[in-house]
Amino acid sequence: MDVLERGQTPTDIITREALENAIAAVATSGGSTNGVLHLLAVANEMGVDLDIDDFDRISERTPLLCDLKPSGRFVAPDLYAAGGIPVVLKRLKEAGILHENAQTVTGKTVGQHADEARETDGQEVVRPLDDPLKATGGLVILRGNLAPEGCVVKVAGYERRRQTGPARVFESEEDAMAAVRAQGIKPGDVVVIRNEGPAGGPGMREMLAVTAALVGEGLGEEVALLTDGRFSGATHGLMAGHVAPESVRGGPIGIVRDGDEITLDIDARRLDVKLSDDEIAARTKDYRPPDRPAPAAALGKYARLVSSASLGAVTR
Question: d(Cα 198, Cα 276) in Å, to the nearest integer?
Fold first, then answer.
């Protein structure tokens, strides 16, 4: 009723500045790669100009300050006890990153909420600006000949910045899981899981089971993984998700074969397969997605209408 009385609408709140604040909050907290999908979709719905590279730009200037699981020590109730999200906003404002005049549903600006933060004495969940966990945020966006439209990597909680290795290609999450259980993945492998994107899944399932199983096998620091599907916030390790275009829409991830040399390079912002442009074009021309059972009516319609993950996997 308070919002109605003020005549406040979603377009007053969901602005470019507010979305940039949200991206900074994901970056400083080591949040999930799903934040990229969701915020791109929100921006699309509201007609706000936002693209996938904005996430890399904002994360690069935002320090990682929240010591939260899965990579850190604390969980959400600990953050609440430390003073909650207002403390995070306070840090972003201190860093000069927060667009403090952005409106919120309370009728106050986000900067006012930052000023009202009550930080618990001695809390260790949200680090001070002069002692960040890392100088930059938890998300990076890679491009390259395997991800012309981009892909998303969560870098909070681990130090590996590059890996080159032979591809181990799987046409589904289930196939990859079977290989992990059979101890068929070796140190140095780059696991490729395709046909799990917005249209190919359909629905873009998260690859949490496979990533957790790799960690369980002691391979979390020895292999890399890339997929046109997505990840859970609990994912740990060098993993590139949302690879776009996805395989069933002609993306280069569809033409990778076992043994192809793949390089995932965080600092260079690149995801590449060691193939010539001519070879990629020839394989793309011949590529056919594997036969899979037709999805049910609603998912079939979704698969026909859904856009690339790089656009937020919104329907058109």
Answer: 28
Q: Over the stretch 178-204, which tens digit does the pLDDT of each residue have? A: 999 999 999 999 999 999 999 999 999
Residue that has been written with the tokens 């719905």 in this structure: 45
- Give the span between the Cα atoms of 241 and 234, in whole angstroms: 13
- pTM summary value: 0.93
303 has a pLDDT exceeding 70: yes
Residue 213 sits at the vertex; the CA angle it makes with 212 and 218, to the nearest 5 degrees, is: 100
φ and ψ of 95, to 5 deg: -80, -5
Which amino acid appears at position 223 of this protein?
A: V
Nearest one of 230, 200, 313 to 33, comparing CA atoms? 230
| pLDDT band of 233, cuts 50, 70, 90 | low
DSSP conformation class of 136: S
Which of 32, 59, 172, 232 does the annotation list as catalytic?
Answer: 232
Burial per residue of 216-253, b for 16 or more beta-carbon CB atoms within 10 angstroms, e otherwise: eeebbebbbbbbbbbbbbebbbbbbbbbbbbbbbebbb
Burial of 204 (0-12, 13-18, 19+ CB in 10 A): buried
* Average confidence (pLDDT) over 283-303: 89
Lowest pLDDT segment from 4-8, 27-31, 68-72, 79-83: 68-72
Query: Is 232 labeled as catalytic in the residue annotation?
Result: yes
Confidence of residue 234 (pLDDT cuts 50, 70, 90): low
**235 contacts: CB under 8 Å, gap ≥ 6:** 33, 70, 154, 207, 208, 211, 241
Q: Which of 4, 71, 2, 90 is nearest to 31 (CA)?
A: 71
The one-letter amino acid at 215: V
More confident site: 80 or 70? 80
Task: Check if the beta carbon of residue 157 is closer than 8 Å to that of residue 236.
Answer: yes
